[in-house]
Amino acid sequence: MAAVTTANDRRPAAAWGAVLSMALCVSMLIASEFMPVSLLTPMAAGLNATEGQTGQAISVSGLFAIAASVLVTTAAGRLNRKWVLVGLTALMLASLVLVASAPNFAVLMLGRALLGVCIGGFWALATAVIMRLVPAADVPRALALMYGGQAIAAAFAAPIGSYLGDLMGWRAVFWALVPIVAVNLAWHLISLPSLPARGEQDVRGMIGLLARPYFRRGLLAAMLSWGSAFTMFTYLRPFLEQVTGADVAVLSTLLLLLGCAGFLGTWAAGRFVTDNVAPLLKLPAIVMGGCTLGLLLIGGSVVAAGLFLAIWGVMNTAMSVIWMTWMSRTVDDAPEAAGSLMVAAIQASILLGAVLGGLLLDGFSITATFAGSVALAALAAMLIGGGRSLLKPN
């Protein structure tokens, strides 16, 4: 799907400035969504809740993201996609203000619910919009650039959040994100070209996609892969504190290492992910599940924990590019409907991962949480196999 100029949809052949604006939005979304991971302990104490309960601040955003991802592309109807993205970014801004000023747990959850709407809506449209901003041959590179925002957030949000949260309190960390999102909102207004809706979207299109066995199988495999990742990642701080014995300085260093490794993952994905994506689909589950198993076995060593987290971080950012490239190539005839379903599946897996991990943590131990993550990764790898069954028949 080439990025061509039409009478109703005028833009340059490749709108890289708009891609960068979307990359910043990704960075802010990831930072906003997963900041509670690095602040879980102080947030729980400040809100008089358990760590398992506070972990549900991630799951509630996932719950609303699921609903939004399915509804936004249909509810937006024939609205220009530029203004839908601008509106969603404004909603993220409102969410951050609510979370930062939350007087109690209920208001925190309300703010997280609004963030979930933004997350679901943005991701449902993101790949389809990227496919319109650049020529088809540049889509993997543009996706890697957009997901570079994920690497930036992973590299700096968690360690900076952990460090600043210890110095200034967790609320100050969320307030610090507010002006950055305001700048991003202005950048959207300037850089995004007009993106008129391309026909009405409805639920029938999504049902039609689910009737395709290869897409249905890929959707389930993606859910298991992300579910495994976030069963572990949501509760990483308690593991590092309880098992590795990390204090705030070591914790921030380990989170920074994990995040910086994401830049390598983004670079590698942009360079090596091509149309032949089938052999790569099971790599995230195998590599990330193996790292989680390694943490279970020898995570008491700071050096070993750092090594496994670095490898996990590389694959974490590559995973998004791998699966979204699969989607753009396998269902290129219905990118918005496919994007809605992919985001709903991924957010459902994040929600379930946070819930499962929290239940295992509160009911058993942090070791049980990480063991659950490994089990989900193994199921994903078995389902994917060689990857050919997840591709559109020729």
Automatic annotation (TrEMBL):
TM regions (residue ranges): 12-35, 55-76, 83-103, 109-130, 142-160, 172-193, 214-236, 248-268, 280-298, 304-326, 338-360, 366-385
Alphabetized Pfam families for the sequence: MFS_1 (PF07690)
Membrane-protein topology: Multi-pass membrane protein
Keyword Signal in annotation: no
One GO term describing the cellular component: plasma membrane
Name the UniProt record assigns to this protein: Predicted arabinose efflux permease, MFS family
Taxonomic lineage: Bacteria, Pseudomonadati, Pseudomonadota, Alphaproteobacteria, Hyphomicrobiales
PROSITE patterns assigned to the protein according to its UniProt record, in alphabetical order: MFS
Superkingdom as given in the UniProt entry: Bacteria
InterPro entries named in the record: MFS, MFS_dom, MFS_Efflux_Transporters, MFS_trans_sf
SUPFAM superfamilies from the UniProt entry: MFS general substrate transporter
UniProt keyword list: Cell membrane, Membrane, Transmembrane, Transmembrane helix
Gene Ontology MF terms: transmembrane transporter activity
Residue ranges annotated for the Major facilitator superfamily (MFS) profile domain, each copy included: 1-389
Compartments in which it is found: Cell membrane
